[in-house]
Amino acid sequence: MNPGDRVRVERADRTYEGVLLPSSTDDQLVVKLEGGYNVGVDREEAAVSVLAEDVYEIDGTDSTGADDAGSEIEFDDDLPTVSLISTGGTIASTVDYRTGAVTAQFDAEDVLRAVPDLAGRANYRGRVVANILSENMEPPIWQDLAEAVREEIEAGADGVVVMHGTDTMQYSASALSFMLETPVPVVFTGSQRSADRPSSDNVMNAVSAVEAAKSDCAEVLVCMHASESDDVCALHRGTRVRKNHTSRRDAFETVGAKPLGEVDYETEAVEFRREYRERGAVDLAIEPALESGVELLKFTPGMDPAFLDVVEGAAGLVIEGTGLGHVHTDLIPRLEELIDGGTTVVMTSQCLEGRVCDRVYDTGRDLLEAGVIEGGDTLPGTATVKLMWALENADDVEEAMETSLAGEIQERSVPWE
């Protein structure tokens, strides 16, 4: 037996079936199970049967399982062109058969090889902006990404799909929503489960994202599973989406409304339920400058006012206040000092629904008098990214933060179900 063979391993009263992986020691067998997890078994205590040879060719390939030859992409003049931009993340990951771990090493062309269902839907161009896990995303990479999207659209792309890790996708989608005026769809997608797992959502999400990139909605969107079933992908506006579950395939939700649209995976139909900016409605433009010195702070009961010393000198601060946008009254004098010192402070709410209104209670009125800006129903993460952008690009930062620039503030906060 060799690494890459599908094997059955029996030990005591347990039986494991999966792909044999290279092991760092001769004393252990390492098997990748169908569910995506690895198990190590003492070699001497195990009985091994080879079920199929060379299920995965490990020798002679790189760590992604791909050979050195580049993928060949044929162009069809009758098809639209979709640019695939990779930043890393689970959708661009596969198992590293040297270690058994999941690694983010696919580039955009590898995605085409890994998702054959993309073939025939569009002409594809691929480029890599970053190859990172999404927790390592930073504002400078947002700027690189926005520039890459601009270049792809200028080069004739009819739509752009950004492959991105799910943990910080909502921040990146918000960033591009403010930085770009786009005449074509820009669709973020990812996967909660890697391609080597039977429950992976990478194929459906990638296919649906490409269909959305061919649609008439020229906005920044997030395309992910709408339910645990493989039936529909939801299309969320980039500034109103939030990851609300750590591992479910339908982790992403539009806060305060239904998703902007959806893609039926079986019929490939793309439908929108609310108004959106149409393809070609604006000229391509980019304002990529960002002020990175902006922090997001969640208020908690009993918080020491000295905690705000950490943001002394920061250009901006977004607070997740309670309810309508409140903090303990003892923090207000310190916030006023920060504002007097040049820090722009924006109030949002920890509540998932509804908007900030600091005119109802005395605490809120004191915050407004101190110079705190109301963020409406802007999501705290979105407000943080927006403040980074507004500090560099807006003539009046307060007016910009209180105005919906990319659909981040809804006209009314009402139950939608």
TrEMBL record:
Recorded name of the encoding gene: gatD
Q: Which organism is it from?
A: Natrinema salaciae
Write out the catalysed reaction. Answer: L-glutamyl-tRNA(Gln) + L-glutamine + ATP + H2O = L-glutaminyl-tRNA(Gln) + L-glutamate + ADP + phosphate + H(+)
Q: What class of enzyme is it?
A: ligase
What Pfam families does this protein's entry cite?
A: Asparaginase, Asparaginase_C, GatD_N
Please indicate which superkingdom the organism of origin belongs to: Archaea
Cited function: Allows the formation of correctly charged Gln-tRNA(Gln) through the transamidation of misacylated Glu-tRNA(Gln) in organisms which lack glutaminyl-tRNA synthetase. The reaction takes place in the presence of glutamine and ATP through an activated gamma-phospho-Glu-tRNA(Gln). The GatDE system is specific for glutamate and does not act on aspartate.
Subunit comment for this entry?
Heterodimer of GatD and GatE.
Q: Where is the L-asparaginase N-terminal domain?
A: 82-274
Under Enzyme Commission nomenclature, its number is 6.3.5.-
Protein name, entry field: Glutamyl-tRNA(Gln) amidotransferase subunit D
Alphabetically sorted, this entry's keywords are:
ATP-binding, Ligase, Nucleotide-binding, Protein biosynthesis, Transferase
Q: Name one GO biological process term.
A: regulation of translational fidelity
- Domain (GatD N-terminal) spans 1-51
Domain spans labelled Asparaginase/glutaminase C-terminal: 294-400
